[in-house]
Amino acid sequence: MVTAFNQYQNTQVTTATPEKILLMLYDGAINFTRIARERLEQGDVAGKAKFIGKGLAIVTELMNTLNHDVGGEISQRLEQLYVYIIDEYTAANVNNSVKSLDNALRILTILRDTWAEAIDIWRKERLAGGAPEQRLPAQAAV
After folding, report:
1. Residue (of 27, 56, 61, 47) closest to 96 by Cα position
2. How far apart are CA 133 and CA 88, in angstroms?
3. Which of 50, 51, 85, 82 is nearest to 65 (CA)?
4. What is the Cα–Cα distance from 70 to 99, expressed in whole angstroms?
5. CB burial string 66-104: b at 16+ within 10 A, e below
6. Model pLDDT for residues 49-69, shown as the tens digit of each residue
7. Are the beta carbons of 82 and 63 closer than 8 angstroms?
8. Is the pTM of this model over 0.90?
9. What is the pLDDT of residues 9-62, one digit of tens each?
10. How far apart are CA 85 and CA 96, in angstroms?
């Protein structure tokens, strides 16, 4: 059943710029990681696993969209961070480790904030210089 909220969400995604979608993905991974942490602390093992899985799916998609041809060293380092986050999700799920979720959350938050700042700088430079439309290099496939 499609609700008004689902329609709103669908419109938000389909009309968003690639940069906005990137930030939305990070926001989703951060939110799911926080919920997984809460569920773990409540002893809800199934809920913890469900939300780790949702966060993992997003991080995996972020990793799959890396463009190593354009992003070079930056995309390689991002891939290493994504692998680390995936490892932390796995440890959190297998060992019921709050610390692992905290580690994943910390890296995701830093990455999200860094991308938001980079996007802001990129937009300002593009507007100031009248540069043609282009995408950010490392996550160019988003």
Report:
1. 47
2. 36
3. 82
4. 34
5. bbeebbeebbeebbebbeebbebbebbbeeebeebbebb
6. 999 999 999 999 999 999 999
7. yes
8. no
9. 555 656 689 899 999 999 999 999 999 999 999 999 999 999 999 999 999 999
10. 15
CA atoms of 24 and 39, how far apart (whole Å):
22
Residue 34 CA to residue 118 CA, distance in Å, equals 24
- Give the phi and the psi of residue 123 in degrees, each rounded to 5: -65, -45
Cα gap 45→140, rounded to integer Å: 36
Query: Would you state the structure tokens that stand for residue 78, as one six-digit string?
Result: 């991002």
DSSP state of 130: T
Neighbours of 11 (CB within 10 A): 10
Nearest to 22 by CA among 98, 130, 99, 136: 136
Q: Which of 57, 69, 58, 63 is nearest to 81 (CA)?
A: 63
> Dihedral of CA 35/57/14/18: which sign?
positive
